[in-house]
From TrEMBL:
Pathway the protein acts in: Secondary metabolite biosynthesis
Pfam families: FAD_binding_3
UniProt entry keywords in alphabetical sequence: FAD, Flavoprotein, Oxidoreductase
Native source organism of the sequence: Apiospora aurea
Protein name stated in the entry: FAD/NAD(P)-binding domain-containing protein
Keyword Transport assigned: no
Length: 438
């Protein structure tokens, strides 16, 4: 300590890690490179759950999150006329587990901004602690920059020699890949084939976009409409001036076309991808059909994605370590992607603080301490995701009937009240070395 650290990716967990590291040791010199030209604030509603909530509390950021939370009262499952068959409400009692809607629903861009600004404040505070900012410590963001190559310096001090896309070459004690589920850092450090093979598709494909709000239909209850063929249309509006529309298809038999539609193959333009999504829902006779198509055509923030999980035998190689979706994406189906990335940042910073200048011991500790939690988060409900997206109209009828039975008898509420607040009941480890609020 202090260390020269490169964080690749200014998404959710990159800035969170920078904040945690600087709170523990004011002298760290942290560079965050983000391939986009500015902070990437796109994305729709994500949720903070389970052990992610105490991490934000420890960072002193839970009130800031609460201020920008969207207020979703629950999720209604509707038929093709838009009439609710049953509704699952949020558990806002502060006790027990979280249901489909978390107590902390937040737009991804708002969470990214909260964490980015916190890292800048932590950097200023660290400069004051160092007495005027000498020694080059703190965090520096470089936008529009990515990593060209990584070479482990195994014969020297065990650090990493990095070549950046702006031509600069620099030596770091540690490189942290926080660059999302398709992580290039993973492919650079583990090899292209191994890096790609770590991603396991769930054959669940989604398109996310913003459409104009329609006060006649949109409220603080999200709406889910199932179509046969394992398809879904979702609207979420809450207290926001616009409405989020999601289209999902969980049909593995259509994987080749759907991968084109997400952009994963890089073969189709945005207009072509939108057209594929339209064709997938063309046969719908739902009340919202024309609204979805008009919204899809007019939207400027179309984002599509193939859901899957990243599984790695080890999250570090030499002095390169993976964080968040890059190392252990649990998929949006788990509802815990953001939470896992924040808990990961907390444990990595905690282990580095605990082991001081022994980076190898810290990385081993990160794997050992975090793995049971990630195993728990990645263990999806048996049959997921297809179990929640029936193939036939009969299957949809059965899902609606079961949902009505469970919610009428309040079995869902009872189940949540009996569940532990933290995923799997696994306690968040304590790191007094991080010098956090609690
Ligand atoms: C634009 C966008 C929209 C999203 N929308 C949703 C959504 O609607 N719902 C949902 O559940 N999840 C969404 N996610 C995923 C969600 O943010 C993550 O699952 C979760 O929060 C974990 O965060 P993370 O920090 O590990 O990864 P991310 O939040 O994915 O952040 C990764 C960051 O790394 C950057 N990056 C990628 N490659 C490189 C590179 N080679 N060099 C430098 N930087 C790089 C990316 O631009 C991004 O800023 C979205 C992610 C992105 C990037």
């Amino acid at each position: 300590m202090p260390l020269d650290i490169l964080i690749v990716g200014a998404g959710v967990c990159g800035p969170a890690l920078a904040t945690l590291l600087l709170r523990a040791a004011a002298g760290h010199r942290i560079t965050v490179v983000e391939r986009c030209d500015a902070l990437r604030t796109g994305g729709q509603q994500i949720d903070l759950r389970a052990q992610g909530i105490p991490v934000m509390r420890k960072l002193g950021l839970l009130d800031a999150v609460r201020e920008v939370c969207v207020h979703e009262r629950g999720v209604a499952f509707v038929d093709k006329r838009g009439s609710a068959k049953f509704q699952v409400d949020v558990n806002d009692s502060g006790k027990g587990g979280q249901g489909l809607t978390s107590e902390y629903e937040i737009m991804r861009g708002d969470l990214v901004r909260v964490l980015y600004e916190a890292s800048l404040r932590a950097s200023e505070a660290a400069a004051k602690k160092r007495g005027g900012g000498g020694g080059g410590g703190g965090v520096t963001y470089e936008f529009g920059v990515s990593v060209e190559s990584i070479a482990q310096n195994e014969n020297g001090d065990g650090g990493v020699d990095v070549k950046l896309s702006n031509g600069r070459q620099q030596h770091f004690d540690l490189v942290v890949g926080a660059d999302g589920q398709g992580s290039r850092t993973r492919r650079q450090a583990w090899g292209d084939a191994a890096g790609r093979a770590a991603f396991h598709t769930l054959h669940s494909y989604g398109a996310y976009f913003t459409i104009p709000r329609d006060d006649a239909h949109d409220s603080d209850v999200a709406v889910v409409h199932h179509l046969s063929g394992r398809r879904m249309i979702v609207f979420r509006s809450n207290n926001r001036p616009d409405t989020q529309c999601y289209l999902f298809c969980n049909d593995g038999a259509q994987a080749a076309t759907l991968r084109d539609a997400t952009g994963a193959t890089g073969k189709k333009s945005v207009a072509e991808r939108k057209q594929i999504w339209r064709e997938f829902f063309e046969d719908s006779d739902a009340w919202c059909r024309e609204r979805v198509f008009a919204g899809l055509e007019g939207t400027e923030d179309f984002y599509a994605h193939e859901a899957g999980q990243v599984k790695m035998g080890s999250w570090s190689k030499g002095r390169v370590v993976l964080l968040g979706d890059a190392g252990y994406c649990p998929s949006p189906i788990s509802g815990c992607g953001t939470t896992a990335s924040l808990v990961g940042a907390y444990v990595l910073a905690g282990e580095l603080a605990r082991h001081q200048d022994d980076v190898g011991a810290a990385l081993a500790g990160y794997d050992r301490v975090l793995r049971p939690f990630i195993d728990e988060v990645q263990a999806l409900m048996p049959g997921a995701p297809t179990i929640g997206a029936p193939q036939t109209d009969w299957g949809i009828w059965f899902l609606h009937s079961l949902g009505k039975f469970v919610t009428t008898l309040k079995i869902d509420k009872l189940a949540l009240s009996l569940m532990p607040e933290g995923k799997g009941g696994i306690p968040l480890p304590e790191y007094p070395e991080l010098k956090l609020a609690e």
